[in-house]
Structures are given as C-alpha cells and as structure tokens.
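Example record

One chain of 431 residues, shown exactly as stored in the release files.
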Amino acid sequence: MLLHLFSIVFLFLSSFCSCDQKKFSFHGYKLIQIKPKSVHHFSLLKSWEENPDFDVWNRIKSINEIVDVALSPKAFQQYEPLFKLANLPYTIVNENIQNLIDREEESMRRSFPSRSIVGRYPRYTEVSSFISNLVIDNPDIASSYSAGTTYENRQLKVLVLKTDTSQKSVWIDCGIHAREWISISTCVWFIDRLLKDYRNSDPVAKDLLGYYEFHILPIVNPDGYEYSHSNFRIWRKNRKPNREDELIWNCFGTDLNRNFGYKWMVAGSSSNVCSEIYAGPSPDSEVETKSVQKAINDKLGNWDVFVTIHSYGNLWMVPWGWDTSLLPDYNDLYSVSQIGADALKAVYGTKYSIGSPANLLYSASGGSFDWSYAVANIKYSMALELRPGNGEPDYNYGFILPEDRVPLVGEETYIGLKAMINAVLNLNRNN
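Predicted structure tokens for this chain:
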C-alpha cells in the first residue's frame, strides 16, 4: 500500500507538478484521442482514469466513443507501449498542448486593452469588480452577496437581478471546474445581456425579471480558477490541501462536482486524493459545496430553475448523473431543454445533444444538479457543457478555446437559456 502511494505521488510530481510558483509549461504534452473497441479496452481506460498522469478531458463513456486524454512526454512514453500491447486505437491530435495555450494567451493579449471584461477571459478580481460596479450603476434591480469564503480567502460573490414584482428564483453558476474558462466568461456575458435587454425593454427580458430574481455565481471555484491562470492552465479541482503530510502536499484539491452529498461516491468518483475526480474526504466537505447549498437552502421552495454551466461537449443535460434511470419528470425537463437547445442552435447553428449525463456521457455521482433536483427539490435542474463539440472545427482545443470564441459561445448560450427559462415561466403560469 505504501509503495503504491509513493508511485502515485511520483507520477503526479514528475508529470503534473511545478514545484516553484512559475507558470507551468506544457511543452511536449500531447492531446490524444483514444477509441476503445472492446470491453477490455474500456476496462483499461477506466483503470487508468484515476492515475494523476492520465488526464481524461471528456470522460470515458463506452465502446467506440472517443476519449480525449492529455499526457506529459513521460506519461506518453509509459502508456504508448500499453496502447500497442492492447491494440488500443489512438490518434495524436496535438503534439504540443503548449501551442494551444500560447495561442489562447495571444488572443487574450489582443483583447486586453478593452476596459470591459464582457467577451474576455476575466480574472477573479475583475469579475468581483464587475459585479460591484453593476450594483452601483443599477441599484433598482441589482444587488450582491457573498455565499461563502474559500480556503484561500476569496469571496463567492453572487449577483442578484430582480424587480419589485419578482416572485420566484433562478440559480445559475459557472466555473465549478477551474480550467473551464469559457464557462466563467459565459456567465459574465449572460449577466451583461440580460441587463441590457431589460434596459432596452426587450419583452422576454422584462417578463423574466418581472417574475424571477436571478442569482448568478460566475465563479464557484475561484481558488482553482486563479491557479489555472497563474500557474497550471488545466487545473480542475479546488485548492484546499488534502492532508498535512509533506509526502502528498502537491495532491491538492477536490473535484467540487463530485463532492455534493447526494449519492456521494456511488459512481464516476475517486477516493484517490491525487485523482482529478477525487470526491473529497466526505460528502459536502468543501466550503464551495456548502456555500452553494446554503444559498439554495436560504430560499428553499422558491427556486424554479437551477443551471450549472461547464465545458466542453455541446450537451444540455438533466439528472441523473449518478444513474441511467430516467426521472419521473424527464419528459418535462427534456421538453424545456429542447426549447433552449433549439433557440441556441438558431443563433449560429451549434447543435446540442439533450439527455442525462449517465446516458450521454458516463455515470458520475456527487454532482450539483443531482443534489439540487433530489435534495433541494428544484424540478428544472440542468447542466450545460458548452463548446467545443465533437465534430466541430474547434474540438481539438478542448478546454483551451481561444478567447475570440467567447462572444459566440456567450451569445448562443444566453439566447438558449433565456428561451428555456421563459418556457419554464410560461409552464408555471399556466399551472
């Protein structure tokens, strides 16, 4: 057991850890696509998934479904013979992930002179200031509160948009996984567009804010998000150390979307502290998890919609994540999701698949929208996986989507969510 622990830590340190505080270089890291052709192949991938040097970007679903994996030069040398030994088909789609990061950074430098964070990949302090300024400039409809404080002492700042006639509530959050930058920028875009539409007397926006108060948390995981900007671009988890033990000090963090207490550790989660899908030492252990739950519980019974936004894959998902069985409300959720996905597609032609994660992707327990549906009883609980989608020209960027895509993703997502929430509003009015 001790030898196994040492080997895990060695792999993590050699493949993914930068021991100083300089920005980690992914020079020579490969992005590969693996296509399991048999049950044996599938089992191999599932067994490797917990290894910290085998970074699965889109999860392992089933036979003949492509799996995106990032490998360090050392890890590629280790796994390539195993691929060949098992006759496991793979394709190298990018020989050097650092090139993707360099391209992303160049696109960010070009947009940096802009004073607005809308349409950019903003930093935590910029998002916080953005919310504060909106509240100052729009005191009639905007306010904010802190849902909690992270391990590194950052506030989980929630923007509230409402009018005097707002009755029910909508929750939208982004950035639960640090490396999914397009999620955070999409939350910012949504805020900006909804407010502008309301001020311009757009009838749907006026109707929505006439009935709903929107609670929007643009960054659920600010510690991890900042670390992904300053140190390690593809960091996923939060940044709370897992043990006061020097041996594994670098195996930081918990996957917050495996930490929610409903069906915790039932499927698609790990007890390995170095794993990207480490579910935490116990259910609801993380302050970010508790903070989202408290914000929901403080208005329990008043929520009509819960949306959590991720990337990537072009998916509009409804519970369950932990199990393949369909909800009693599945048809209702599918119907309003279809309205949202159709409206989204009408903007630029982007196609989304609709269904549950367990059926579209893979089973994964401890997710926030399973909790919001089952525990908080929010019927219209959903999760979106934004661009890029499989088969699109940008797909091989994965999480490292150039910043100039932000307006495209933001606009289509805003239109889709606006249509979906409006459909829920009309249903509730008629019942």
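Notes: Residues 25 and 98 are 7 Å apart (CA to CA).
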